TrEMBL record:
Keywords: ANK repeat. PROSITE patterns: ANK_REP_REGION, ANK_REPEAT, FN3. This is Fibronectin type 3 and ankyrin repeat domains protein 1. It comes from the Eukaryota. CDD domains: FN3. The keyword Ligase does not apply. It comes from Microtus ochrogaster.
Length: 344
């Protein structure tokens, strides 16, 4: 018996081309075999889309999975691209489809100029283009950012106002789920943040990682922005849907900024909050060797006796990772603690 091929000598069809723009190509495939998907996923056919590298003349995988559709983004306008489909059976045999060639369209001249005007903060040109009426104010650039997102991120307050008064949607999100407010908070542009809030942007929006504007502001570390956000009623201990981290946890993990941590704690952030794995800000700060932050957290009442889900405490973590200074901090702190009486 010869080894069983997926479909004897039947090559898969090349991917079918859907919508094509100046920076994206939509591909579909396997339109006739939909009904075969029974049982667990590992028994399904797996699909990969491969794109040719025109210089090297070899193919690289740009998508793999069980979906039957993929949008290729970030492409150049008026350029020819070549794709093929690889179908792999559960037992590991695979077949390639014939190649399909697709050219992206010309960039609509207006949208290219529009985004260029925004990038270089050219107010007059932007107004002229908008008055010309040939460009939609929310047309994304090739990275999926609207003009408002770019202006918000760069702190071009006047452009932000022009775009909002021309009807841009302040709540649109880019490919990673970030809206203009998150981008402005991370970059530290307080004027833009205030303006977006006045025009309908929400503190509750989440990106694809489940993070809110305050998580991004904590990463950006711009205290005036964080301070204003808190005064504006932003939730201080908002939890991301990925790791179960509050903004204080982000600081412990990423920047270790004492200033940002103090602001959050003064506003009521819980120093002993636990994430999905039972880790606390103190543990994370110890693991990341943020000495000043460890000191601050201890001063603000962080519980140094707490254990993670493997029964390991902060001292053990500091020892294992050889965090000498943090270790002496913790040891010092332990000596000062009043002995707990054994009467419960």
């Amino acid at each position: 018996m010869e080894p069983h091929k997926i479909v004897p000598s039947l090559k898969p069809h090349p991917p079918v081309v859907g919508k094509v723009t100046h920076h994206s190509i939509e591909l579909y495939w396997d339109l006739e075999r939909k009904e075969k998907r029974q049982g667990p996923q590992e028994q399904w056919l797996r699909f990969s889309i491969e794109e040719e590298d025109p210089k090297m003349h070899n193919y690289g995988v740009i998508y793999t999975g069980y979906s039957t559709k993929h949008v290729v983004e970030g492409l150049e306008p008026r350029t020819l691209y070549k794709f093929r489909l690889k179908v792999t059976s559960p037992s590991g045999e695979y077949e390639y489809s014939p190649v399909v060639s697709v050219a992206t369209t010309r960039e609509p001249i207006s949208s290219e100029h529009f985004h260029r005007a925004v990038n270089v903060n050219d107010e007059d040109l932007l107004l002229r283009i908008l008055e010309g009426g040939h460009v939609k104010v929310d047309v994304p650039n090739k990275f999926g950012f609207t003009a408002l997102m770019v202006a918000a991120q760069k702190g071009y307050t006047r452009l932000v106002k022009i775009l909002v008064s021309n009807g841009t949607d302040v709540n649109l999100k880019n490919g990673s789920g970030k809206d203009s407010l998150m981008l402005a908070c991370y970059a530290g542009h307080l004027d833009v943040v205030k303006y977006l809030r006045r025009h309908g942007a929400s503190w509750d929006a989440r990106d694809l990682g489940g993070c809110t504007a305050l998580h991004w502001a904590a990463d950006g570390g711009h205290c005036p922005v964080i301070d204003w956000m808190i005064k504006d009623g932003c939730e201080v201990d908002v939890v991301d849907t990925g790791s179960g981290w509050t903004p204080l946890m982000r600081v412990s993990a990423m920047t270790g900024s004492q200033k940002v941590a103090s602001l959050l704690i003064e506003a009521g952030a819980d120093v002993n909050v636990k994430d999905k794995d039972g880790k606390t800000p103190l543990m994370v700060a110890v693991l990341n060797n943020h000495e000043q932050l460890v000191q601050l957290l201890l001063d603000k009442g962080a519980d140094a006796s707490v254990k993670n889900e493997f029964g390991k405490g902060v001292l053990e973590m500091a020892r294992v990772f050889d965090r000498q200074n943090v270790l002496s901090l913790l040891e010092e702190r332990k000596k000062k603690l009043p002995r707990k009486s054994s009467v419960h």
